[in-house]
């Protein structure tokens, strides 16, 4: 509407500017109405006052001399006076009634305008409040969007961490499975070793029993019948058995030591796995707490989102209510404008009728004056006529003034129509603003829907994270089952160790007499170990000395390397100088080779010139001979009748290869070219010595 009526700039402005424009125009319209009311009242008072004055003047100036001079015309004059007084009283009453109606209408219009201004101010305040609330809602929506983004990022991070943790847990479970398999293999190997050891123990028992039987048999046999060789054999077999037993004992101890080491390593691994399981449980508890926090934050965000939707719905309802109020005000303003227009038209019609009545009365007075002119031919009648004419002129002037006032009233009416149109424009502007607000609300609703979709996505992601947590719990249950299996295996391993300890104790009880020998062996080993430690200390001392020498060698090497670096730098500088000199010598050689080539060419050209000069001398001598022969034969031409051609063929029996005219021309040209070359070479020779002098100076 504003763009159609030439107010596109105001339509493009903000709603505050449009409301201010409407308020200014309404204030101007109210002022115009206030200024227009007293003008109309003053115009009406002036018209009534003029009518009174006209009636009084006409009555005083026309009818008094007529009553004095002509009593015949008293009755019509009295009738005319009565009519005029009645019409005047009626006009006054009508004017008063119209004035009171106009005053009432003006008051009502002013009151309604005041109410409209108050409502407009209230609407502007409400719009400002709504704008503030919208800004707050926008900020809250932005915050909610940021929170949602943060929650998404946290969820992605948690998902990534969960995936990483799951991968780590899977890897850890795989490692645990591998370790459990390794432990089972170790247990199996230990069982096999236990069986082997049991077999070895049984063999040793059998051998010990056999050795004891052999000793008993040896004690019962007579000493005289046995030879010295037979006496020497049992000790060798006993020693072998002892050595074998000692080796078996050492092997058993080594196996025991290995088993103890394996048990310690298994216990350490179990403790390490328990610590890892505790860490995983703590991590899972932390993840659960974070998930709970995220759920709480999601609930808070959902509540905020619901609050924002409620606020938006309430704002839309208030906005619709404001639109309804604006439409009602528009309808009231239109009705008031229509009523005021109708009242003004009625008043204008009444004034037009009054003017027509006044004109009719004036015509009647003119007719009466003409009659009076016909009746009265005296001077007084002439004077009265003149006065009447003057007063008629004044009445005509007053009519012109009233017409001007009527035109001014019409102009004021046009201004009122313009103000009404402006109010309609403002109403259309408000409607456009309402449409814009509807568009903004629809945009906000679309944003809210997008946020709902995002919340649904977040809920789906949350469900996925819950599924991941369930899988983690299942993996933890599997880990607990594996730990229980590990404990069962550990118990079995403890039982095996107990059985092995029982066998070892039995074996130790049976072989206590071997301990002394083992102690001796230990003493020897300790002595050897001490000797070895001394040797190791000596070697360490030697190694320290070697390290010191090595450090000295390193320092010497560093010095040598530094000197080598210095020498390399000097060498590089010398190489650069040498390369520069080689370049200079190469350039000198190039110049010398070019000079030599030129000299060689000059020598060849000199040789060619010498050959040419020899040929030319030969040709000159030959030409001289020809000239002489020609002179001789010219004298004899008259005698001889031989043709010239035959004479020349006889005189000149020369070959074409030896001499010809073209050869002479070419020889002359060659001489010229040789002279030019000699001049150029002389100039070049003058330049070459300067170059050679420069090289010699260098």
TrEMBL record:
<feature type="coiled-coil region">
    <location>
        <begin position="341"/>
        <end position="549"/>
    </location>
</feature>
<protein>
    <submittedName>
        <fullName>Coiled-coil domain containing 30</fullName>
    </submittedName>
</protein>
<dbReference type="InterPro" id="IPR031476">
    <property type="entry name" value="DUF4686"/>
</dbReference>
<dbReference type="InterPro" id="IPR052825">
    <property type="entry name" value="CCD-Prefoldin_beta-like"/>
</dbReference>
<feature type="compositionally biased region" description="Basic and acidic residues">
    <location>
        <begin position="226"/>
        <end position="241"/>
    </location>
</feature>
<feature type="coiled-coil region">
    <location>
        <begin position="106"/>
        <end position="193"/>
    </location>
</feature>
<feature type="region of interest" description="Disordered">
    <location>
        <begin position="208"/>
        <end position="241"/>
    </location>
</feature>
<dbReference type="Pfam" id="PF15742">
    <property type="entry name" value="DUF4686"/>
</dbReference>
<feature type="region of interest" description="Disordered">
    <location>
        <begin position="70"/>
        <end position="91"/>
    </location>
</feature>
<keyword id="KW-0175">Coiled coil</keyword>
